[in-house]
TrEMBL record, chain A:
InterPro entries: 2-oxoacid:Fd_oxidoreductase, THDP-binding, TPP_enzyme_TPP-bd. This is Pyruvate:ferredoxin oxidoreductase and related 2-oxoacid:ferredoxin oxidoreductase, beta subunit. Residues 56-204 form the Thiamine pyrophosphate enzyme TPP-binding domain. GO terms for biological process: cellular respiration; small molecule metabolic process. It holds the Pfam family TPP_enzyme_C. CDD domains: TPP_OGFOR. Keywords: Oxidoreductase, Pyruvate. GO terms for molecular function: oxidoreductase activity, acting on the aldehyde or oxo group of donors, iron-sulfur protein as acceptor; thiamine pyrophosphate binding.
Amino acid sequence: MSSCDSTATYAAKDFKSDVKPVWCPGCGDYAVLSSITKAFADLGLKPHETSVVSGIGCSSRIPAYTNTYGIHSIHGRALAVGQGLKLARPDLTVMVAGGDGDGFSIGGNHFLHACRRNVDLTYIVMDNRVYGMTKGQPSPTTESDWDASAMAPPGGTGMTPFHPLAIALASGANFIARGFSGDPNGTAQIIAEAIRHPGFSFVAIMSPCITFREEQRDWKNTMRNVNIEPTTDPAQAARRLMTDDGFNCGILYRGNRPAYGKEKKATNAVSDLDREFTL
Amino acid sequence: MTAANMFLDAAAEAGYYALFGRSSGPQIRGGEAAALVRLGVEPITSVDDTFDIMLAIDWQGVQRFAAELPLSKNSIVICDPSAGDVPDVYVKTGAKIVHLHMKDLAKEIPGGRPNMIALGAVAELIGIPVGPLTEVLGKSLKKKRADAYEASVAGVKAGAAAAATLGGAKRLAAAKAKDAKRWTVTGNYGAGLGAIRGGVRFCAAYPITPATEVLEYLASALPKVGGVFVQAEDELASINMCLGASYGGEASITSTAGPGLSLMTEGLGLAVASETPVVVVDVQRVGPSTGIATKCEQSDLNIAVYGLHGDAPHLVVAPNSVGDCIFTTQWGVYLAESLQTACLVMSDQALGQSRAIIDAPADVAFVGKRLVAEAPAEGEVFKRYANTASGISPMPVPGQPGCQYTSDGLEHTETGTPSSQSSDHTLQLDKRQRKLTNFDYGNHWATIEGEGDIAVITWGSCTGAAREAVARAKADGINAKLISLRLISPIRPQHLADALKGVSKILVVEQSHQGQFTRYLRGEYDLPVKPESLSRSGPLPMRPGEIHARLLSMGK
């Protein structure tokens, strides 16, 4: 594990740690982990120059399961931590990963501002439309009438589900895609494209929770690859996103905004700053 | 305010030291405001009990300031009769009231303004020559607006000439020659400069009164030295962006005030648990809640020391003068980087937003340096949270091969793997406490001045008033020792015990209704005697006379 150097090439397995995941058997997140590490390897990245940053939740455990640099931070704050890291260290590949509760509920404000700030990083949300770690509460993406859990109010929340992709587009994200954990190779390709694309790339990956949302096993029959050309036109992308049923996978929008941040370049010595205060 | 800043510049030019605070209401722009200036031939770190001169250009909203503008029968009130009668609150002080027809005098000068008449008059009354004034006017106006410059110079001269006939003025002692370089700085800009001197190259912050000038300074200064500034969407983002940047190897800082600090406490806990260096400058204002945003209080002490959940040892330091905001922030960065934890720099509104003329501060050698990790031998696992004797574990910089680890707020083993074992928890708790307790903080833990039977223990902006009170008491034959704590947490039991040797009485001075500092000292230290407490709330500043009166009664 410690044998990383600058000339070696790395396979997907080199990006995995030997920490055993806490995930339930059959959880979609195992496949997402494989897609991420495959994408890292396919891009020729090096574990010590790559980082995975997360918040709190089932899927947010992912940094410990990779052999990259990583931060398992606090609930909802993954994007803030990840943007700070990338702005301080533009040379690193930064991926931020987590779940729908972490990203869209407690972390919702950071999601909006990360989209519009457009820092060059990739944000993966493993969406299973439920809080798994706390045993089955509805999340922002849960269907309004879902009440199959004792943790959900009878009849469901009655609230319109959050539409992460449409909100990402409206907020200024530069790359928007949907993947499915049941298609690890296709998802790995999408992730690799997302990492390559400048600015803020958002990839929603439908990843079933077979413990609290058993019906999501059926996603393998409903998720479909759309194989359409990604549009650079936000209006066309909006139409695409607002008319889809949530099961279309692929790269749905590819913007051309330059990434946030200026080159770090010192023009003054620290002692030059004294001048402003000297009488 | 413009005229007041020019006045200060001219006083500095003439060789005086100064402290300049401002008072304004909650208006967004314009409206009534008061400039509170104290000048002297020695460095000034405190407001006085009363003002010698009050110059009122008008009386608009003056009731709001009444308590902040204490006068005595020795004071002079200069006012324009055309602005109406002097309010009763000032008549009652017995101050001498003199009339200066600022409006009329200004009218005689093309483009003339009453504030320039006022500026000339005050300068004349206290003995600042017209030369430095015109020089200052030249610096700010000559290039841009020659006509405004001419009008201003004429106004200042007319004001000075008129004031010469008023009589009864208090003239300052002649200023000493400027033998060393002098600086003009606010505490908030000073904190920003200290941060950069200490090695900070990343700041994410969200605007909040009275801390905004820290981010204002860093937003323009950081890029010049190759650093990054981000205006975050909120304080949650501020602190967490700083943690990400710090993990990446850059010393990071954010600044805020009480409400923002409340939002940051979860992030501070992550800094402690994951051992990620970060500095937060808290410019304290009056709380709780939104409180009084533009005024000073020292009532964030409890949240600073005790606000984090769990057992979360961290650093709390406090500057004790406007100039010391530079040093203490720099030192705070050095400590956070050395000890891989959160450091709160507890400034306050009276320090942060006051402008002072000071001797140029020394550029001290505290630049944050982390204990850098080396890659483990082949086949060995890197231990990010290694249980070292000092408690400080080597910390890698991402990009370094072989040291990949996950920084975690979950309790963890020495390698960083999450663990719920009690043995791991105890080991890491011990380690995180040990590194703070055993560190050598040198003699910067406190500012200690004088000797005496009485010790005055204080912190932050109360220090200046306490210093002046101790000096007055000495003139009365009462000897007191001033101890101003710069290192609030962790405690230094032996150091304070040594400093209190021979002391038979203790007075604790602070600006908190609950006496938070007194309680902290009594709870954390074995004091040799039960201290007396002079603690009261903001927003009025602690004045030397209050402390002096208490010292007189204690010295009987």
